[in-house]
Structure of Glucosylglycerol hydrolase:
Amino acid sequence: MSLKDRAEARPDIAAGLAEDCHRILNEAETSFDAEMELARRLGAHVAEGHVTFGFWTPELLDHRVPDGDVFLELLAPEEDVDLTRASQTLRFERVYLPVARYEDRVFAAVSGLRIGTREDVGDFYALVWRDPEGAWHRILDPLAASLPYGAFAPAELYDVASMHRGRADEEYFRSLATEDGSAYKFGPPTNILQIHVPTATAGGTIASLNRRYQRLAERLANDMALEPADQLFLGYDAVQLLPVEPTTVYEDGHAFWEETDHEDGQVTVNLTRPDTTNWGYDVVIGGMATVNPVLLESGRPDELVDLAATLHTFPARPGTTQPPKRLILDVVFGHSDNQGLGALNAHFFAGPNMYGQNMAYKNPTVRAILLELQRRKVDFGADGVRVDGAQDFKWWDPTSQELKHDDEYLQQMADVEQCVAGTTYRPWFIFEDGRPWPQEDWELSSTYRAVVESQKDDDIFQWGPLTFAHNTPFIYTFWLSKFWRIQEMLTHGANWISGTANHDTLRRGTQVNPKLNINTRLGDTKMEILDKAYDNPAVAMLTCAALPGVPMDFLNARARASWGFIRNQDDLYGVKVVAEEAISLKWQVDEYSYSVPANFRRLKEMGFATREDLARFFEFLPALVEVTEYDLDEIARLLNVAEPKLAGPEHFSDATLKAVARAWMDDMHEYCNVSHSLPRLDSVQTDFMLAVRNFRRKRPWLRDNFKDGDHFDYIRPIDGRTVFTSLRNGPDGEQVYTVTHMEGGPTDDFDPVRLGIPGLDGFGWELALRTPGIGLDYVGGPIVLRDSMGLVFTRMPR
């Protein structure tokens, strides 16, 4: 049946929604209370026998659009849409239906629509209005439940309830229900694995990642031997995904939804499966309630529910116990890329910033919609939320003429209640907040406690000082220079995320000038140095066996895979971004890696046959970007006259420079995939890293701050090396003693348990962990420790 024949407007229901809006706005105690209630009604909602639609449309008032020029637009493909195809051209039937309005809200209700599910693609929709010249303008739904063609295309009508019906982790959520019906509150896990979905598996999708965990679950349940590739994913209580929201699209190039041949009641649409590469943080706010279609193998948001269920039902080895794995979502509401101006109305924004646009947090409607987007996203079944860039949530105070941090909004984020499988709960929250960043002295002046100290919950976490972006553990004296921060961790670290290997620190590490004072004891090549710096056994031992907080590892770092700022959508500034990233070639790509046929195939096709060819081009490019003040025509002219002639395109131009930049981003995205590193994993290293994680998981009390009787210091005199010693006393009387060689030359021959540290005296110490490089025959006594070596001893009271 055609869309025209089956879609029936329900003006009575739409009018009722508009009247409810009128009542709520007039009767609510505050405007924000009203907006919070109304936000629940925005977007598309499947009801009994019909679907309701709600839009916030202040732009219609701005343009003085009369009611007769506003319609709900419905689009139905005349053939089946295959969301797994790279491209297809289909005819869509289009119908315009009337709406009901109240002030800046528009409502519609329709029966007879096709609802999307895991198996079927639903009808598409948007709001449209006609201007006095007869031109049509489309208003997209920022709260859409499914966006198969991205945030800049019409949304798919989707049955959200069907995603949750019969989910495999229903019992997990039901077990959390409280007797008095109050919301269950999640606390912190013991440790976290941070994952970038597109580079985590060869498939690069959430479904592919889910299959990886399902395979691990089967192997554990059957008590099978673990391979190094398995060990990377195990020993963690939680999985934190880098943002899975829709991101920016190509600035110049094809759209994923491209309309041609408009006819009365029909339109031809060229559909392209979204294929951008992005590290996840370039969001446009629109679409934050659903999943980036680039990450969906099937094009169905159900994949995120499936992953949550697999984690929540993850088994332990027979005869052992292990809590279910939790899912943590990384959300980005502190800014929008400038492309967001094309996805949302202008009232969402408060002006430009270094990332794009500030959000208008003081606008009660915007505030409520952002919180509603968060609620709908976490309702996929996440146990925790990590808030990116919390220091960027600001508002302009006209009285003081300055930007102020919106800590009230951060508290409101943490107060949002979720409901999955009938259970109401509040997730655990992590805030990344380095205020007063970007103030020049932020590394010195930031306390990393601003949010922890302002919120009412005592389990709110922040990224700690060794986890924040600008940490380079491969520069000599790093650990001694950061000792003052480590001392802060001893007293405040219980509510910090700890560890030095995450998406931000690894990225910053690849941008360091190799001519600085690099710790060459970490490896023979720059690649080896970088890999070991962020997958360092002594650092893991220090983090897991000594320091407070919740340790977090980045999968790419643990796999010794590459990583960087990956984004192939830029046209205007793409060449500049690549110039800034060019130095990573020195850190992450050697001649052999470049020569592998599957690696850097696009750049090779453009004429950069060898790493040396590309390295020479990358010596020129950053310098020319700076001296020409990013004049692409002048950069191209100077590259063309270089002697001897540069490898690459026969002739450099504005267009070829942009093509090279795109090729670098696409090639690097493929090069960073963890699957390429799995055959090279060292089983001794992965064995140890899993053992040290399990050591921490068996002793959750190590998360607490140091207490009287605990000890942390470095061995004095320095004598050309930094060696940390730590003694922790557990609530059951167990003592954990850790010695880690962080940098510098070897120690003299010494007995670690005879250093005269208070509380260390006596007998009964047993070796619990030794880093790779220390012989299996060592169980105690005198030893020489070298860079990246460490020991953990334990003792129980007699």
